[in-house]
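no rush on this but wanted to send it before i forget. what follows is a protein written twice so to speak, once as letters and once as C-alpha cells for the fold. mainly i need to know what kind of three dimensional shape the backbone takes. thanks a lot i owe you, the record is right below.
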Amino acid sequence: MDDVKTAIEQKIATLTDRTLLLLDDDAPFRQRLARALESRGFSVTAVESVAEALKVIEASPPAFGVMDMRLEDGNGLKAVEALHAKRPDARAIMLTGYGNIATAVAAVKSGAVDYLSKPADADDVVKALLAVEDHAPAPPENPMSADRVRWEHIQRVYALCNQNVSETARRLNMHRRTLQRILAKKAPK
C-alpha cells in the first residue's frame, strides 16, 4: 500500500497543472474533500451547482474534475461533458450516493475516467484521478450479486422506457408478465 501512496505522491509532484474542479451540493462533504485534495497538492475550486461548474469550466477549464452525479439543478454528467469539450485531456471522476451499473456506464460514456460511491475517501479519489499504472485497484469488498446487476439493468431500461412495461419487455426480449413479476419484487441484495 505504501508503494501505491509513494507512486501517487510522485505522480502529483510531476504534474504541471494541478487545477481541480469539485462539484458537490453536500456542503460539509464538499469542504472536507476540498481540504483533503488541497493538502495533497491540488488547486481546488469547489462549487455546489452545475451552473457554477459550467461557468468555471468556460472561464478556465481545470485539469481534473470530481463531480457529483445528482444535484439540485441538474446532473454532474453535463459538467463532465462540458469539461471534455473545453479540455479533452482533462480527467474527471463521478461521485454518487446512488450507485448502479447504468449510471456508471453513463458516467464513463460522458468522459469520466472512474465512478466512485459516496462517501469517497480522498485517497481513493486521487487514485482514480491519477490512475497510477501497474497498480490495479483492489476488488470491491462487497460486489453486487449477479441478480442485483440484472435487476439494476432492468430498472434502467424500464426508466428509459418511461415505465412502459410492454416497451421495456420488448427491448429486453422477455415476456411482459415475467417483467411485471420482476418489477413487483424487491431489489435483490
